[in-house]
Design brief:
2 copies of one chain form a homodimer.
Chain A: H1 4-17, H2 30-37, H3 41-53, E1 57-58, E2 66-67, H4 76-80, H5 82-88, E3 93-104, H6 107-113, E4 120-130, E5 133-142, H7 147-150, H8 160-168, E6 172-183, H9 186-192, E7 199-209, E8 214-223, E9 227-233, E10 240-244
Helix pairs in contact in A: 1-3, 2-3
Chain A binds a DNA duplex (19 and 19 nucleotides) through helix 3.
Domain HTH gntR-type (chains A, B): 2-71
Protein name (chains A, B): GntR family transcriptional regulator
Pfam family, one (chains A, B): UTRA
Amino acid sequence: MAARHEEIADELRRAIDREEYTVGSRLPAETDLAAHYGVSRGTVRQAVAALTAEGLIGSRQGARRVVLASRRSQSFAELRSFAQWARAMGREATGQVIAQEYRPATAEDAVRLQLRAGTPVLHVLRVRGLDGEPVLLERTVYADWISPAVEPIEPDCPSVTQRLYDDTGLVFAYGEHVIDAVAAGAQDADLLSVRRTSPLLRVRRVTTTREGRPVEWSDDRYRSDAVSFSVHNSMDSNALARKTAE
Amino acid sequence: MAARHEEIADELRRAIDREEYTVGSRLPAETDLAAHYGVSRGTVRQAVAALTAEGLIGSRQGARRVVLASRRSQSFAELRSFAQWARAMGREATGQVIAQEYRPATAEDAVRLQLRAGTPVLHVLRVRGLDGEPVLLERTVYADWISPAVEPIEPDCPSVTQRLYDDTGLVFAYGEHVIDAVAAGAQDADLLSVRRTSPLLRVRRVTTTREGRPVEWSDDRYRSDAVSFSVHNSMDSNALARKTAE
DNA sequence: TAGTGGTCTAGACCACGGC
DNA sequence: CCGTGGTCTAGACCACTAC
């Protein structure tokens, strides 16, 4: 099933969550772990590399690895899908399509989705909520080749990601996010039940397939009193960068 | 000097930047790269793993690696330091301390900086700008053990990170960022030259040493018309997570 | 079916850290 | 000094892709 190094990484993560290894304490040496799990040192190194990338443990040449944190950051799957993220928190995701229509791709659409300008693309305006409370307004544009699979989905489908996976086998694999803050406009305020000019957290994102083919791009606006983003950085995974406005 | 796998990773990054390998094209097979660079397959794999974590290339078992992007995301050093980030963009970073004083650590300070409540900690309010235009308001609290090195720094020092490295050898290695949006308060508006209630991008962050010891924590507020954040995700480095407000 | 990446092994040497 | 992690090698087998 899963690779041996993944099993070992999981066991170590669980041990840290159980506080068998407490924050600040040292992990056993690579050779000891290798002996304990009956694998070679290389396999152990694959496992601990995953935890290091997650920021769970730190390492310095010559010294034992140190446990840095116990709470795992959310998984990639939870990031990709609003519904999966909600479920992981024990809350119920809701969704409601407000408007849905085909429009010819603008120049911007064409660049972001890597298709020809004028190609009909599907625009969807969707409000999403946690336990019924609206927290997110999504303005999404789907590429022409995936639109036929999106169009027939029921307006109140709680997880579009899951539906697309079930129907087409599509897995969202890579994404680029640009995060800033905007004042709520009239439509934003109305649909999110906040006052006009309230600060909203805006995330503009492009989602692609595992092969790098763009699937959708979206302007997401979150109620900032309800949702925030958390980014963890380490020397190994430098995923966050500041950007100036164009 | 640098490890061989890092040299190879650098060469591949440059080749992609030069568009020797264009977006969408395939990288040579691992065995070919190994032969070309005169190293073993394992070393090549270390190199391409770095590019994969950066989101530059994608891979699927059985198929050649594919080039996904050409522009590299900013380096970790640029993220950690406002001045280094500005310089990388060809702009000049400015800074001005507005207020600086010692206060006893609150319970929150004590938890975030892992020290005892009541310990005197250094609070610094600093405005930072790009080419003279204010874009960022930093409210930073420094741990007691680093405060003596921070206190004597000139109020208009453009790079505190660089000064601390020069003076004490301290390297910021890990950080946790929570990002949301807030409306500008009276002081925010005044110091950033924006109207009250303007949306600001807020980043609350904790910086630690490589060993995981907290150095400082800060409430940073960016003018959202001037700065945004960009996050790249891949299956390998899941650094971004949504968070609900507590 | 041949090629390719994913996984794993069993060694080796070096640089750094802690005692 | 000895233990540890960082690096590297030269092989092996398997699962999956592309043709």
